[in-house]
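Batch manifest, entry 17 of 40.
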Amino acid sequence: MECKRLRLLEEEEKQKKKTARAGLNSSMLLQRRQLGLLSSTSYCRLVHELKVNCMQRRKIEIHSPDSSVAGTSNFKIIVADVACERIFTVNDVEHGGCKYGIINLSGLGKESLTVEMYDNLYFTNRKVNSVCWASLTHPDSHVLLCLMGIAETPGCASLLPASLFSNSNPDMSPVLPDVRMSTVDVPLKSVTSSRRWLCRSYMRDRPGMLCSFKISTAWSCAWCLNPQADNCFSTGLTRRVLVTNVVTGHRQTFGTSSDVLAQQFATQTPVLYNGCRSGEIFSIDVRQRNRKGQSWKAIRLFHDSAVTSIRLLQAEHYLIAADMAGKIKLWDLRTAKCVKQYKGHHNEYAVLPLHVNEEEGLLTAVGQDCYTRIWSLQDAYLLRTIPSPHPSSKDAIPSVVFSSRLGGSRGVPGLLMAVKQDLYHFSYN
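Output type: structure tokens
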């Protein structure tokens, strides 16, 4: 495997690019388009495929106001906000645990390809199982984290303001020492009216920080953007789903028969989709009250292995799911049938995310073998396999972000890859 990786890296450095489809080149596409043999949709899709095969890797220099920040710890997770202007990072700490930071991508548009990383002293000795951006006071104003319990310390779900990780808001700096000591822990069993008042008053007095809820082991989390479930987030726990309103403190619990490893809210309706260790995928309408039994499961799909990631397509008629057998399937939610499979993904036991870019018609996933693979979303064709710049190992699985606007509306397109202490940009133009 290492010989194969080195050979692929050498081919990339020599720019020996082979397109996934025979005869695919820019002149051929343009000629077919002018002759009316390709529709606009097909032409754009094939152009994106051609761009994928021409991506070139460049290492990015990470700048930081604190010179001790950059390159001091390994990247574990990177998650971009909706505008792709910032990336929240989870980094391994040398003696165990994790620390957090935010990378500003505005510098990607420059020739030097530099980015700014704002770090923070906020860290934990517990493993981060799941991360997502949350829109509470404004779009992507906060970051939701699920932390795994360790020893006698229970797990927790924490909602942190993105402003804590930026030097652009100096008024927040004095709050930092209090964040770790002042976090409100709300027991799982019940939330009394006094505790709900405490959450609201704490939120009003310190708009930058919210409650941290004690929970059992949390495997996944998701934030709801539908106005019918405003200010709500979900956590996938061991054999149950917990939906919490961070303003009122109200919560709903749905019992399941398996651990919930993946979650995503729909945006057109307040429906939560869940992927389980048992291989089951089911949906919950969070407007309904808690019910015993399985009657509240609206849609039920099944994989043969544990489901590790789920992604709804924009129209919300289709859902893509990946499992621990390396299977990636596209499900039609109207018929509850699998309509496509994306082959080549490698996974045996890790919880690995999927990345869907409908505008470009691409699906991206990093396998446990540390290869990044990109498929055509339309016909499930494997377009490119990208080797990791570092030798494959359990602690060196790359984390990626793919977007046509890295750095915002005027940003640059491409793939961003974080592996070990390094950050790479694969140009896409």
